[in-house]
Write a structure and sequence with these properties.
It is built from 14 helices and twelve strands. With 340 residues, it is of the alpha+beta class. It folds into two domains: 261 residues, no CATH class; 62 residues, Alpha-Beta Plaits (2-Layer Sandwich), CATH 3.30.70.3270. Helix 2 packs antiparallel against helix 3 and helix 6 packs antiparallel against helix 10. The longest helix has 18 residues. It starts with a helix and ends with a helix.
Length: 340
């Protein structure tokens, strides 16, 4: 299973395989930014994923660019009514099952950056945060190692949203490998303060914070990206899939909701429409109450990112836990909570 794939590396680095517990340190792994770093994760049991990781982390711009071209071709040449075809659906949903993200509030994104220990969240608990059948492990080695660089999606289009120097690789071996191989994306090591500032700037501009997981990363988290619907394919694919596969259980998706929902107070709402413009998931529309314009939030489309909360000057929107949703990726809570 995936847990065994990274388990040996985790023990070597921390001396413990428990959820954030402090064990006696053993020999610390030295990450070199060479393929051997990924061999420690995959080894002979997963040679394809080893090669996959070398290509993806060594050429993220080329890799993502190839996927975007494939998706754009399908989007352009195959009518949406055929996307539910039993022969086509497995192809369309293959990638999101193995490469996906978890929406974060800004507080939870900051907690990941502020980590001061390697973590391994119990797989049973992690599965409640990320409900995909595969690629759902919350493991971060050497959490104080962060690499900050340009957004891959924005680097591939003309006139992207700015700033685009807002995406980061978290922990090892991903950060060091990205720094050594990611010159075209201006990737460099960053301090926690630099990473937090990048998140703050992105949040002010209304970007959505996402923690990304991938099979080539050993089925675990490797990056924290700040995304927008006009530039980033993850959000675009999620919105398209929501409309096409909305009746499927589970619904194929590129992003998992944060575990929160935006709740709206119509009495406080001034009808300014700022929340409509801020929502990247088309969850907010304008309606009316007694002839006055009022925002309306469709919880079936809300991902609980919290951007609308901060954009509402009337303080008419707040986040509440989704009683039927997944657990938030609150790393502090996950490390301290008892396994259920």
């Amino acid at each position: 299973m995936a847990a065994k794939r990274y388990h040996g590396e985790m023990e070597k680095e921390t001396g413990s395989s428990s959820s954030g517990s402090a064990g006696k340190p053993e020999k610390k792994i030295r990450y070199t930014g060479t393929p051997i770093d990924f061999w420690r994760i995959h080894g002979w049991k997963h040679p394809f994923q080893f090669l996959h990781s070398i290509y993806y982390f060594g050429n993220p711009r080329r890799y993502v660019g190839m996927l975007i071209k494939i998706f754009n071709f399908l989007d352009t040449h195959i009518p949406k009514k055929h996307w539910r075809n039993p022969l086509l659906k497995p192809l369309l949903t293959y990638l999101p099952a193995r490469y996906h993200g978890k929406v974060l509030t800004i507080d939870h994104a900051n907690k990941i950056i502020n980590l001061n220990q390697s973590v391994h969240v119990d797989p049973k608990r992690a599965k409640r945060v990320l409900t995909y059948e595969m690629v759902n492990q919350i493991v971060i080695n050497s959490s104080d190692t962060i690499a900050l660089g340009d957004c891959v999606c924005r680097s591939l289009i003309e006139n992207p949203c700015t700033p685009n120097h807002v995406c980061m690789f978290i922990g090892e071996p991903f950060a060091t490998y990205a720094v050594k191989r990611g010159k075209r994306l201006n990737i460099h090591y960053a301090t926690k303060e630099e990473a937090l500032e990048a998140i703050r700037q992105a949040h002010e501009l209304g970007y959505v914070h996402n923690a990304f997981f991938k099979d080539a990363a050993g089925d675990r988290m490797f990056a924290l990206c700040n995304c927008c619907s006009c530039c980033c394919k993850g959000i675009e694919i999620t919105n398209i899939f929501k409309n096409i596969y909305q009746d499927d259980v589970p619904t194929p998706r590129m992003l998992e909701a944060s575990g929160y929902l935006a709740v709206h107070d119509k009495e406080k709402c001034t009808g300014c429409g700022a929340c409509v413009d801020a929502c990247h998931f088309n969850a907010v529309t304008m309606g009316s109450v007694n002839g006055s314009p009022k925002a309306e939030i469709d919880h079936a489309h809300c991902f609980g990112c919290g951007i609308c909360v901060d954009k509402c000057k009337a303080n008419a929107i707040r986040l509440e836990k989704d009683p039927y949703g997944t657990m938030p990726l609150d790393i502090e809570h996950l490390l301290n909570a008892k396994v259920m």
